[in-house]
Write a structure and sequence with these properties.
alpha+beta
């Protein structure tokens, strides 16, 4: 069976690479966590994985914003 990656899947791989670079983590670990579904010969990121990935990114951004706010507060105290 032959299957091709969808544009969405390629984009998700790119996001994983960006996250690995930004966090200093191994891209292989990120790729191993990915889950896919095959539909009509096309490999697509599973909806559950995509939702969890986005949730994790939002959580990291929120944590970063909180740290930055705390550091700014400490600078001016």
């Amino acid at each position: 069976m032959n299957a091709k990656l969808t544009d969405n899947t390629i984009g998700q791989v790119a996001k994983c690479l960006q996250l690995a670079i930004l966090t200093g983590t191994d891209i292989v670990d990120h790729l191993r966590q990915m889950n896919f579904v095959v539909t009509d010969g096309k490999i697509e990121v599973s909806p559950e994985f995509a939702a969890q990935f986005e949730s994790n990114v939002q959580d990291m951004l929120q944590e970063l914003q909180e740290k930055q706010a705390s550091q700014k507060k400490n600078l001016f105290d």
